[in-house]
Design brief:
By secondary structure, the chain is mainly beta. Strands 2, 4, 5, 6, 9, 10 and 11 form a seven-stranded mixed beta sheet that branches. The chain contains no helices and eleven strands. Helices cover 0% and strands 53% of the residues.
Length: 120
Amino acid sequence: QVQLVESGGGLVQAGGSLRLSCAASGGTFNNYRMGWFRQAPGKEREFVAAINWSDGSTRYADSVKGRFTISRDNAKNTAYLQMNSLKPEDTAVYYCAAGATYQAPTYNYWGQGTQVTVSS
C-alpha cells in the first residue's frame, strides 16, 4: 500500500520561503506522477504542481509559476515543493498525491496534508 507523508509546513511572513517534503513508501514509483495540491478555507482543492517520476518533467499552476519549484529525489523516494516569494493567498493545507502515469489525471494516493500559513 502506497503511503505519502508530508512535512515542512509552517508559518512564514509574506516574501519568505518554505520547502515541503513528501516521503513515499510502499511501492515503486518509476511510473508515477507526484503532485502537490492545496485547499484554502472555504475553497475547493486546487492543483499546484506535478512531476513525472521517470523523466522529471514538471508542470505548474499559473498562480505559482516562477515562485514554486517541484523536484524529486529518486534515492529517497521523496518529492519536494520549494516555495519562494510566498503570498498570503498561498495560505492553505498542502497535500501530496501520487498516481500511476497511465492513469493520468487521476491521483490514487494522498497524504494527510501540511498547513502553510503566510502572514502579511
